Each structure stands twice: as C-alpha cells, then as structure tokens.
Amino acid sequence: MLKDIALVGSGNPAALAVDLFEQSQQRRRQEDPGEAARIDRIAEARRDLLEPLERDGFVLLTKRFQTAAARLLARVETFCAEGRPLMPPVDLAASRGGVDYRLAPRLSAEDLGRGIEFLRRRTSAVNVLEPLLCCPEIAAIAFDDEILDLAGAYLGCPALLGFIKLTRSFANDFMPFDTEEFHVDGNATRILKAFIHLHETDAEHGAHVYVRGSHREPLEGWDVSARATEKMIVERYGRERIVVQSADVGDVLLEDTSGFHRRGKARSGDRTLLILNYVAHEEYGGGGLRSRITRASFAACSARAKRAARLLEITDDCPTFDSDRVAVASPEERF
C-alpha cells in the first residue's frame, strides 16, 4: 500500500490516492502561478507529445542529450572500474538455488573494487551513490526547460524533481529479478519518469519494456510491491501491448510508471541509464531519503530550477558518502 495514503486517513485507498494527487496539484499551482501558466501554454502547444504520453503512457525524445550522455557514461565507467562511489548490490551468485534475493548478501566494498568483469559475474546492476553529488552536471539535464515543461504539463502542475538514479546493468546470464520483472511504481500517486539513455539499447541490450496504456487500466487491488509474470500481463492486456522501447544514446524516454513496466535484461551488452522522477508531491509519503545537491550546484541553478528542486536536500560542497544512508535508502534504490 502506498505510504502516501496513510497520511490522509482511512477509507478507499484508490480514492485517497486521487485526493492526495489533486490536493498536491492544486497546492503546487497556487505556490507557483507563473510556472502554472507556462505549463498550461505548453499543454496546448505540445499536443504532439502529450497526446501519445497520455494515451500510451510513454513518448520518446530522440537525440536530446547526446553530449551530456557521453560525459556521464565516461564517469560511470570510471566509477565501476574503481568500485566507488557505488551502492553495494545484491550478490546474485549467492542467491541461486531459490534463495530470495532480498535475503542474499551484498557485495562488500572490497568486492566493488575488483572491477567491472568481477561485478558482471556477481550481480545484474549497480547504482551510483548520490548521483547529483558525484555528477553535478546531472542538474543541467534534470532541470532542462523542455523536460520541466513536459513533466509539468503532464502532471498538470509545476513539477518537482524527486528520486534520481544513475544505474549500470551488466550483460550476463542471471535470471531476471526485481525491477526486471513487470511492476508498477508506488512511490508517488502520479509520476513521470525520464530515462536518459547513456547506452544504445534494444531487446538484447536491456531496452525498457512497457505495457501500452496500462497506466489507464490499472489492476484493481494490485499490490505495488508485487511483481507480475509475463503470462499475467499477456492474459490481462494482450501480447501486442507489450512494447520493447529501443533507444539511442542521448534519447529520453518519458513514461508514466503507474503503468506496468520492467527493466530490460541485458544479455549482449551493458546498459546505463540516468533516471529522473518528476512528481507533484514527495515520494514515499516523505518516508524516504531525499536526493542531495551541493550548495554550489544549487546556487548555480536558475530560479525555475530552484523551485523544481525544493524536494532536494542541500548539503556541503564537499560530498560525503554516509554508509548509513545506503542502509535506509528508498526501496527503489536498494535493488
């Protein structure tokens, strides 16, 4: 059950979720009327993108951040080679034989320093710890005017940047696990995700998979923590609605992840993504850790970006990586 829902009392969970979003949407418009007027104009002017996003649940912006993607990929390559700053991933080699991966041990700091090929043999993916602190250039992507325009127009209110993830998926033969299985996101009542591709992806290179239109046809009573099999998805929605979303370097996939989706399993080549969440209210009902940005990076932001960054935690200019934060990170960041 959504943690957000508990904040507004008991009753019909679906109705409460709608109420929470609508209340947050109205409050955001009142707090930032100039931005609300801007995104209303965008909502009329960019029907070419917003209509398929509303109908299908996704739209692709091609070749949007090619140069920035190449720079970020180089950083992630270095992080994986040096083993820092990475979040300790689940040791999938230790979870074979039917062991629940959530009960499996994590790789140690020493393991992380053994290089990419070692990681490839032991896990499916690693996440960069504190992406905005490690890679300040992410701010320019996250607060890009076109992305904020489309996110706000889709949400119907000035968008807030929430969760940030910089992740590397390794090509290997491990069975799909966690977000590599079909699921819906429950971290906010309504959410628009931007997947910025740092690698070219297709069916063999970890391309994202989405069930077209499933954001408009939710499964009643579905537990957001649950995973759906492909058989269940086919029976409910039909195989023709399962879309493999291939993309090139620098492409941005905008997606309403309240629909069923999964992270593609990389088999023939690695996949690296920057993932940005845009919301109307704080994710996980305020129960998760906030993403952090340095004072210097925040000071360099435009006035518009600073308003969109209100859910971020501003910290000292010298990044510190507290292992305690890793232990209590939000569910989506753990796996």
Put simply, the count of helices is 15
Nearest-angstrom radius of gyration?
Answer: 19 Å
Total strand count, please? Answer: 11
Give the overall average pLDDT: 88
Give helix and strand order, one letter per element, not per position.
HHHHEHHHEHHHEEEHEEEEEHHEHH
Question: Which range does the strand content fall in?
Answer: 15-25%
Give the terminus-to-terminus CA distance.
19 Å
Main beta-sheet annotation: 6 strands, antiparallel
| Poorly predicted runs | 1-13, 323-335
Structural class: alpha+beta
| Approximate helicity band | 25-40%
Shape call = globular
In the sheet with the most strands, the strands line up as 1-7-4-9-3-2
Essential attributes:
335 residues, alpha+beta, six-stranded antiparallel beta sheet, three-stranded antiparallel beta sheet
What does this structure look like?
It contains 15 helices and eleven strands. The protein has 335 residues and is an alpha+beta fold. The strands form three sheets. The protein has a six-stranded antiparallel β-sheet with strand order 1-7-4-9-3-2. The chain has a three-stranded antiparallel β-sheet with strand order 6-5-8. Strands 10-11 form a two-stranded parallel ribbon. Helix 3 packs across helix 10 (145-155). The longest helix has 19 residues, at 13-31. Residues 1-13 and 323-335 have low confidence and may be disordered.
